[in-house]
């Protein structure tokens, strides 16, 4: 199971939010590229970057910071936040980002998701951010009428490479991952699931190993790394090699054809 450090960007700086609340942000570093290098030096084999400004306005905003991160590290970078059209997706992929994460578009524009999955196989990941089981959109500022499990099943059928599941009420709180929700979601689909939100300790990470057989192949860790509650080196040693297994484009998903 891969441990993936999170780098959340707000106004070009590395921050963490509490339960997705923009008004409760904490700045950890003014130089995101420096943060990226630190995580890679400690063993990260992939980085998770979120453009928080982009998520609010609906298009990429922190592109300079993202480009700097990609250029600063030799590992794959996945990016989400405000990607709601083909232009934004291709713009990021052209900078060297390996995978892009669709959130709001996954709820509101299924034809776009299908088109992108066919055009960029294995590079489109869907981020499902849930509040009490219901999917949140537009930078977590709105709540949809679709459940996380329903959306995951729909996105798997459209050809998404993986699902990133975030429990908003756990995000940034250091209260542990929502294992029950993860078990339900992963058990309902055949593509990999990456857990996100609430990780506070090595014990939390070890608890996720019980879900690995269901397809939970990675975990994104944010605040716990920045506060020192979790050591990245120790986390990688505890739960895996830190080598995320990408879904290859030839697994037979009919929508890739």
Supply the helix-strand structural class. Answer: alpha/beta
Strand content: 25-35%
Question: Can you tell me the residue ranges where pLDDT is under 50 for at least 5 consecutive residues?
Answer: 242-257
Strand order of the largest sheet: 1-4-5-6-7-10-11-12
Work out the radius of gyration.
Answer: 16 Å
What global shape is seen? globular
Count of DSSP strands: 12
The profile of the biggest β sheet is: 8 strands, parallel, barrel
- Rounded mean pLDDT is 89
Number of helices: 11
Order of helices and strands: EEEHEHHEHEHHEEEHEHEHEHH
Task: Kindly state the percentage of residues in helix.
Answer: 25-40%
Describe it for me?
The structure is a single chain. The chain is an alpha/beta fold. Helix content is 35%, strand content 28%. The protein has eleven helices and twelve strands. The protein has an eight-stranded parallel barrel with strand order 1-4-5-6-7-10-11-12, surrounded by seven helices. Strand 10 (162-167), helix 8 and strand 11 (193-196) form a beta-alpha-beta unit. Helix 1 packs parallel to helix 3 (63-72).
Q: Topology, please?
A:
Elements: E1 2-10, E2 13-18, E3 21-29, H1 32-41, E4 47-51, H2 52-57, H3 63-72, E5 77-80, H4 86-94, E6 99-102, H5 104-108, H6 110-119, E7 124-131, E8 134-137, E9 142-147, H7 148-158, E10 162-167, H8 179-187, E11 193-196, H9 202-208, E12 216-221, H10 223-227, H11 232-239
Parallel strand pairs: 1-4, 1-12, 4-5, 5-6, 6-7, 7-10, 10-11, 11-12
Antiparallel strand pairs: 1-2, 2-3, 7-8, 8-9
Helix pairs in contact: 1-3
